[in-house]
């Protein structure tokens, strides 16, 4: 959600958020008791060229919007009252309406552990901890467990018995894990492919070189688009290449200093990033198209947690503000440098596809090439456009995406088994 | 490639020169940049050798912290063309946060280090003599603190008793024939002015045309004059090693393994390092040390993804994971290539005897790279200190980690039951250090020359 703020009140808003504090623990005082809430943040979106500024409230939650809104109204608004009071037209009498009015559709959304609720994730973490402790305890009592090549099943049986006895509240075995149904997505892809084949065949039936004519007609707009894009890219590149790689302004350096003292406080971090799209209809439509593509991939292809090949993103989302600016939120594991390194080394085409349509992005070729591969320019560009994440909350700040998946697998396998290989895998997860 | 433009330390750790002194120098109060330049040019520059020089019995390498660059006349605008990490310096709170340092435990470089003169020689006497020849009687330069004096341990070991300096990247164009089957790393990963792994020239410091008279046009900052070509960044850290804590932990923590492995202490130590004391890697020698493999470096983790031979958290697997990281061994190798370090460290302090002696000892960790944030800081922050490294839950580097909050164990995968001792003591404590710019020879001469 984004709530408009009159620019003269931005400083007041920033002060109100600073009052809350920047650590995960500070965030927990605002968001900590909301049900099903994974991540949340409050960020000031500074004034753009047409003079509009916002307070952005981003939450990632399980379940339906209505009960979540109720909790926001009942808990978050009163706790951050001073911040909300800075928002234009925000009515403390009707916070629900004010929040709803600020809702923005996400253009692309990605979730690193689709289908796992906060409750499940926290349960699985406790299962992992409890079992690791029990195993330590067993080894302390009987070092012979450390002998190699032993049968894994008796230890597993013993540990599961103890878990059931000592931690009866923990759930093990399969839990429901609703994933986006990829069937419809695949059906649509097939539909399009069949449609094209049918057109080509129809062309062939109507005229001896009909198939070629159909192919040419289908490709013409793509070619035209590629030419237009190529020209635009060449213009953009000429502008960028004349700039040195590093050119932070004083303001930017100040902002980076603030960010530097917020980042890396826990194994997880937040990135908030704001850029202005390049002018023109071509760029605007390409941006929307690529975001749509990324969204589809996130929902239907990377369902088990690796956007491209980045195994460290919990949640990521792109929204487009009313003034056209593109706002990116993500919650990731590890350091900024490692996250950006993954962008550069492992997922550069997708990100380049999105951000190549925004200003001052490192020069690109055919939308997705180049760009983020210009490592230093790309990192400087990202830093220059990064916002301070003033208030941030995570429901499991001590878990990486890989931890979440490993713990879910451990919990699934935590049922008696006669199969040696499964018991071995299970012990390997401890 | 202009090899004569690189200071010699880029290519070599000078293993045949047993003595080394790291001398920290600053300008005397009141000296002007011209005076400081002239004195460095007269006293230090003649002893600085390049890769191509015939090396005398004693010689030096010269590098500058931000304060040193100011002392020889660079202004703020020019310093801002250096990386932020460098300008802030290792003791800055933001850098300390990244590197996991507690600066209040430091006694070297808390206020920054200006100029580093590293002296290498065939004997301790010769090293000291060269240091004195350069600094005794100087009118504009002075020692900022006691020099760090490297010590000699047998068989190229460090104080914990393991062979060090085995695995080094070979640098394209610098190391003529690649050592071993490893592909040479592009020059620009370590030296500015050359293409890096992304096929680009690294960002480099520059001056305005008016101030950089005599320097060639920069190829990365249009309209400016280049200061980077042939240069690198040098990281120096004084890392104190608690040898007695290390030995005591090996004894204690290896007890439960007695009877299940041949030599429990040697086994546990090797699992922590990733190599046996001789240097033999666990991947090729999973059961016992084999000195025949002491310098072996052509191995990978792709057949040991679960870490049964070499634990995922072992020091050498964290600091160079080779093909171990997701999504696949080839992509891991490609990504890891962007994080390589050339290490040039040496031990300091006397060898540890049998009983605690109250002496300070450790490693003068020195490494070179062209990008501090992407290479050194990344390795330190994400791989050494990162408690989530490669799927981990709550462990840092078992050998050198600072044991910050959340780091409390070390997992040794075994089949079927892993051994994961808890409560690792801190064996290594950072006592200080700094980031330095190691200019190429041409730029060094320009920097120390008389100019307008
Ligand atoms: C007192 C502290 C340290 C000690 C005693 C130590 C010891 C060792 C030893 C015994 C080896 C194996 C031999 C070899 O491959 O050369 C090694 C390798 C290595 N260490 Fe350290 N080290 C220390 C600190 C560090 C730090 C702080 C870093 C990086 C930030 C680091 C980076 C490396 C790298 C990159 C390798 C080579 C890994 C490979 O390529 O396989 N070391 N170290």
Describe what you observe in this structure.
The complex is a heterodimer of chains A (430) and B (452). With 430 residues, chain A is of the alpha+beta class. Among the domains of chain A are: 1-103, Alpha-Beta Plaits; 118-176 and 401-429, no CATH class; 182-241, no CATH class. Chain A has 16 helices and 11 strands. In chain A, helix 3 (65-79) packs across helix 5, helix 6 (118-141) crosses helix 7 and helix 11 runs antiparallel to helix 13 (348-355). The longest helix of chain A is centred in the middle third of the chain and has 32 residues, at 210-241. Chain A is globular. The model of chain A has no long low-confidence stretch (mean pLDDT 89). Chain B has 452 residues and is α+β, with helices and mostly antiparallel strands. In chain B, the strands form 3 sheets. In chain B, strands 1, 2, 3, 4 and 5 form a 5-stranded antiparallel beta sheet that branches. In chain B, strands 8, 9, 10, 11 and 12 form a 5-stranded antiparallel beta sheet that branches. Chain B has 2 domains: 3-237 and 436-447, no CATH class; 238-340 and 380-433, no CATH class. Chain B is globular, with a radius of gyration of 22 Å. Chain B is 22% helix and 15% strand. Chain B is built from 12 helices and 12 strands. Classes of the chains: A alpha+beta (430), B alpha+beta (452). Chains A and B meet through helix 6, helix 10, helix 12, helix 14 and helix 15 of A and helix 5, helix 10 and helix 11 of B.
Helix content, binned percent of chain A: 40-55%
Supply the CATH class of one domain in chain A: Alpha Beta
How do the SSEs of chain A run, as a string of H and E? EHHEEHHHEHHHHHEHEEHHEEHEEHH
Instruction: Catalogue the unreliable spans of chain A.
Output: none
What distance separates the N and C termini of chain A? 40 Å
Please state the structural category of chain B. alpha+beta
* Distinct ligand kinds: protoporphyrin IX containing FE
How many separate structural domains of chain B?
2
- The CATH architecture of one domain in chain A can be given as 2-Layer Sandwich
Number of strands of chain A: 11
Gyration radius from CA atoms of chain A, angstroms? 25 Å
Characterize the overall form of chain A. globular
Largest interface, by Cβ-Cβ below 8 angstroms: which chains and how many residues each?
A: A-B, 58 and 56 residues
Largest sheet of chain B: 5 strands, antiparallel
